[in-house]
Amino acid sequence: MLALFYTVPLIWAAVSDYRKRIIPDWTWISILVLGLASAFLLPVPPLYERIAGFFLPGLCLLWLAVKFGGVGGGDIKLTAAMGFAFGLYALAAILFLALLPACVYAKATRQRSVPLAVFLCVGAFGYAAALLAFHLI
């Protein structure tokens, strides 16, 4: 139920990233704060998985940004906040679900840079739909 609170900042980040290529700071901060609140309220995912979800993808994207460019600071912060909120394994699933639409968008628009927040949002909703479908079956 707490996951519903993530929808507003995720959608706002996606729309803003698509229109202006900027992710507002309040979006990733609110996701991080909600993740902190849920860490105290819910035992799943465990804290070590949340910490790994915060650092590993964030550091990988930071390395990509420094080495190759094309990854913005807002993308790094949003991914790190989502990693803490959802945990490392859930973030891996979200990134997997975001990969195909991002590649299709990049190929269709012939852009080398994509608004990552849009596809993180798509991946998060796809992950939530998959969880919901498996719980209903």
TrEMBL record:
Entry-linked Pfam families: Peptidase_A24
GO CC annotation, single: plasma membrane
GO molecular function: aspartic-type endopeptidase activity
The keyword Transport belongs to this UniProt entry's keyword annotation: no
UniProt domain Prepilin type IV endopeptidase peptidase: residue ranges: 5-106
Annotated transmembrane regions: 26-44, 51-69, 81-104, 116-136
Subcellular location: Cell membrane
Keywords from the named record: Cell membrane, Membrane, Transmembrane, Transmembrane helix
UniProt membrane topology term: Multi-pass membrane protein
Name the UniProt record assigns to this protein: Type 4 prepilin-like proteins leader peptide-processing enzyme
Gene behind the chain: comC_2
